[in-house]
């Protein structure tokens, strides 16, 4: 949301409680609506027209909240879900594995909630003559419609022109739409059985470029490894992305010391630091990310 000076109707907002840093996701902002939070409720009208980092107070003036535009990570994990999203730790890793840059054309099969769609759209968007394109396919109309809504609502729809939504099995639908359009710079498949689709999709991938499969279990990875033995594909990476969050904050610790004169033991607070992993919220296994490179023979 960089570049926006104030909140408008239809925007999304993160409320951060000033004292505790606890966050609440709000939106889309609508006149006369409100968000229930600790300490009361925040009226959407009190946010609309305000600048980021403004302090908004609950209706009874008991608790203060600072307002922020949501990051892409905050947006994709908080919007309503048609299905489990590809979480930011995997989406950002996939963007890196595909080696995306402005101007690239990308094929996505398995639109889902549209979280990876947004991450890739931001990577390829660029500007001027270097605007990329995401073609994303899903067999479920409800998933496609939800993802389209999320793309249109994030950052006032700035990435909507980059994304085209399609319904149907990708290998069946793609040949009817891609005649004369050239090859893709990257592909990503989030589907239960990619092995059925990959041989039919390979002609649409540029040589020496990448295809990433999102596979929840190792049995699927092994099936894929067996498939590519007879295909012009090389498995370059099989990654399990994990994030471990750490809690780092100042605190007060009460220490017992003896007063020099009276010899009595008293409790005296002193500053210290809490620095520990958030073991209760480790972002662990979601899927294996398998990176394949197209390795067809070069004809000179």
TrEMBL record:
Residue ranges that the Swiss-Prot or TrEMBL entry lists as coiled coil: none
Recorded E.C. number(s)? 2.1.1.220
Q: Pfam family example for this protein?
A: GCD14
Q: Does the keyword S-adenosyl-L-methionine apply?
A: yes
Fetch the InterPro entries from UniProt: SAM-dependent_MTases_sf, TRM61_C, tRNA_MeTrfase_Gcd14
List, in alphabetical order, the Gene Ontology terms for molecular function in this entry: tRNA (adenine(58)-N1)-methyltransferase activity
Cellular compartments per GO CC: mitochondrion; tRNA (m1A) methyltransferase complex
Outline the extent of the tRNA (adenine(58)-N(1))-methyltransferase catalytic subunit TRM61 C-terminal domain. 69-256
Q: One of this protein's GO BP terms?
A: tRNA methylation
- Per the record's keyword annotation, is Transferase included, yes or no? yes
What this protein is called in its record is tRNA (adenine(58)-N(1))-methyltransferase catalytic subunit TRM61
Keywords assigned by UniProt? Methyltransferase, S-adenosyl-L-methionine, Transferase, tRNA processing
